[in-house]
Amino acid sequence: MPYFLKMKASSTSPPRVSVTEILWSWLGAFLGISVVGYLHYSVLGDGDLMLIVGSFGASAVLIYGAIRSPLAQPRNLIGGHLISACIGVASYQLFTPYPWLAAAMAVATAIAAMHATKTLHPPGGATALIAVIGGPKIHALGYFYALMPVGTGALIMLLVALLVNNIPKSRQYPEFWW
């Protein structure tokens, strides 16, 4: 098939989800981000530690709104974030004088590593990028960034997903663990 004809697409949009599904997704995302955000702002306060990063917003979409997706499963959530965080820190440290190169290397290498380890989680790309562009507080964490905020925050969101996603009979999470 010629190159530009591939962009035409070959199927239609997926069907709408029910209002009930929307409400459960909303509740899960609200509670997951609330818990992480509350701990970040109220418990950790103004210290150097943090618990919330921007990529958790995208993780919330997957683990509360697309719970059957392979990209939303616990292995992918935790593994994708941890691997990507380490790669992002390494890229920043290796290529600090060239932030554009550090950013590109972090995201591209994170994708490759997640593919190789069967932990593909799209927000992991943002986690790697945040390690590079995140600013002095993030940079000061070094590899601790992988544990706090990334690992701890993702684990908290996973626990909320396990609790909320299994309340209705119509939902089951996870589809697989490992």
In short:
The chain has 7 helices and no strands.
**β content, as a range?**
under 5%
**Poorly predicted runs of 5 or more residues:** none
User: What is the string of SSEs from the N terminus onward?
Assistant: HHHHHHH
- Our Rg estimate from Cα atoms comes to 18 Å
Mean pLDDT: 94
- What is the helical fraction, as a range of percent? 55-70%
**Shape estimate:** globular
Question: What is the CA–CA distance across the termini?
Answer: 37 Å
Estimate nothing, just give the exact number of structural domains.
1
Alpha-beta content class = mainly alpha
Largest sheet properties: none
Please tally the helical runs, counting DSSP H or I stretches of 4 or more residues: 7
How many individual β-strands? Answer: 0
Task: Characterise this structure.
37% of the residues are buried. Helices cover 64% and strands 0% of the residues. The mean pLDDT is 94. It has 178 residues and is mainly alpha-helical. It has helices spanning 19-43, 55-65, 74-94, 99-116, 123-133, 136-141, 144-165.
Topology, element by element:
Blueprint: H1 19-43, H2 55-65, H3 74-94, H4 99-116, H5 123-133, H6 136-141, H7 144-165
Task: Give short descriptive properties of this protein.
single chain, 178 residues, mainly alpha, 7 helices, 64% helix
